[in-house]
Write a structure and sequence with these properties.
The complex is a heterotrimer of chains A (220), B (48) and C (223).
Chain A lengths: L1 H23 L12 H29 L2 H33 L7 H21 L4 H29 L7 H4 L4 H43 L1
Chain B lengths: L1 H46 L1
Chain C lengths: L1 H20 L1 H20 L4 H34 L2 H4 L5 H32 L6 H26 L7 H6 L4 H15 L8 H25 L3
The chains are: A mainly alpha (220), B mainly alpha (48), C mainly alpha (223).
Chain lengths: 220, 48, 223
């Protein structure tokens, strides 16, 4: 089925990405080998952003259609996004240590990622404090919508107040061709992985829902 | 300098893959447990 | 015009009922002053060093007092089940949002109007400048715009008002950052020119977070 195709695709892309990151792409002149973290660090960040965008859209879809499927997509995507955001923080920290000598620095990107992490953590905290499924879905959609709209402003405000992190290399055009291709392959690999996780996670939620309906039916 | 940093590079990539695989395994485990529970319930309903 | 008369009625009701009992406003003011005093003990700095942390102290005091003020927007309604009555009319729900936000705005501005002079007195720093006041007002608007909708949401969860800070403090970080940075700039002598970027961020935040919660609020109080 579709998850199987995604699994094969992800595996191939990940292998390709790993090869390109460790064998194909040249070592960075300035930072040395540690710079290779960049490819997966940035990919993970893009995917987290994509995941929260999906939560945003699915939240709107839920409020419009009231189909529980959309809430499943929203919360599954938010969960994956939270995992990936945690990875941003961890890889960013590991990158920071040899670069700047500290495990954490309050620079623009790391701080924004931390705030992002807190916003989506609160998404799950709200869900955990509500038992009624309908209200849970509705409130989560509201939090997901407001949270996502906030993300650009948070990034902007924090960026204005700090300047330590290397600014977006991609947009400055300072990336050599081979680096750009490697980055794109990494992003593609993680996108496939995200879609796979999403499909599996939603499937799992559908099973949970089926289980609950069965339990309900048994009580009668 | 390069060889020192390779340690960090390895750590970063290992953690990414451990987290990703760990997540995959928790999903698989939950899926299996759910399937078992659903099957058991369906059996119970047939008998009733 | 019916919309605005409902908004005014809701805001007025909140203000009057609070001014009569003075329950919350008094505790919030005392709390804010206590925050200032505690900071004085926590950071024992020379006057010139104080300038660096002054806006931060102010906004910690405002933020935490603000959370207390926002909570009172919906807790009494929940307890007395007043919301159903308000929700009857077609423009009911959005008017509730704006009315409650205005009520909270009034409270926060009241607290700020007391705390700013007290601060100037206790710390001997000229915070009562027009630029600071404008920045504070813009920031407070953003604060209550987001806080009101999340307050309505929080009150309907199991943990009730405890959820509010967790939920909305990360969201309003741009407001806090801009207010603190802009205020610091003013205190070291920058004129309006140096504040443009921060004022733009605050203005953008206010616009976005008045519009989006306005649209989404009815979904929160549906039942």
């Amino acid at each position: 089925m579709r998850p199987r195709i995604l699994l094969v695709l992800s595996t191939l892309l990940i292998l390709a990405a790993l090869f390109m990151v460790f064998v194909y792409v040249p070592t960075d002149a300035e930072q040395g080998n540690i710079q290779r973290i960049f490819y997966f660090h940035v990919s993970v960040a893009w995917i987290a952003f994509l995941a929260f965008f999906v939560t945003f859209v699915a939240g709107i879809a839920y409020l419009a259609k009231r189909n529980p499927f959309w809430d499943m997509v929203a919360s599954a995507s938010a969960e994956i996004g939270l995992v990936f955001t945690t990875l941003i923080l961890i890889t960013g920290s590991i990158w920071a240590r040899p670069m700047w000598g500290v495990w954490w620095t309050w620079d623009a990107r790391l701080t924004s990622s931390l705030v992002l992490w807190l916003i989506y953590l609160s998404y799950f905290i709200v869900r955990s404090y509500i038992t009624d499924e309908e209200r849970k879905a509705r409130f989560a959609a509201v939090v997901g919508i407001i949270g996502f709209v906030d993300v650009p402003i948070v990034a902007l405000a924090i960026q204005f107040s700090r300047t330590q992190h290397p600014s977006a290399l991609i947009f400055e055009g300072g990336l050599a061709g081979s680096m750009l291709v490697t980055l794109l392959v990494s992003i593609a690999a993680f996108t496939a992985l995200y879609l796979l996780f999403l499909a599996v996670r939603v499937h799992l939620k559908e099973d949970e829902s089926e289980l609950n309906s069965l339990k309900e039916a048994m009580r009668e | 300098m390069n060889s020192n940093n390779l340690g960090y590079l390895f750590a970063a990539y290992s953690i990414i893959w451990l987290v990703v695989l760990g997540y995959v395994f928790t999903l698989i485990r939950r899926e299996k447990a759910l399937r078992k529970e659903i099957a058991a319930l369906k059996e119970g309903m047939k008998k009733a | 015009m019916k919309f605005w008369s409902r908004v005014a009625a809701i805001a007025w009701k909140d203000v009057v009922s609070e001014l009569r009992t003075r329950e919350i406003i008094f505790s919030v003011l005392v709390f804010a002053v206590l925050v200032l005093v505690i900071f004085n003990f926590a950071f024992d700095l020379a006057p010139d060093q104080m300038l660096q942390i002054v806006p931060g102290i102010l906004w910690v005091a405002f933020a935490f007092s603000g959370v207390l003020a926002l909570n009172r927007a919906f807790i009494p309604e929940k307890e007395e089940n007043c919301l159903e009555g308000l929700m009857g009319c077609p423009v009911g729900r959005e008017a509730i949002y704006v009315g409650k936000a205005l009520g909270s705005l009034f409270f926060m501005v009241l607290v700020e109007a007391v705390i700013l002079p007290v601060f100037a007195l206790l710390f001997n720093i000229a915070v009562l400048q027009l630029e600071v006041i404008v920045v504070t007002l813009l920031a407070t608007i953003g604060f209550v715009a987001v806080g009101t909708i999340f307050s309505a949401l929080a009150v309907n969860t199991r943990a009730r008002e405890m959820v509010l800070p967790i939920l909305f403090l990360p969201i309003i970080t741009p407001v806090i950052i801009s207010a603190v940075k802009a205020s610091s700039l003013v205190l070291v002598g920058s004129g309006w020119g140096g504040l443009t970027s921060w004022l733009s961020i605050l203005a953008a935040f206010d616009v976005i977070f008045l519009v989006v919660p306005f649209l989404v609020f009815p979904y929160v109080i549906e039942e």
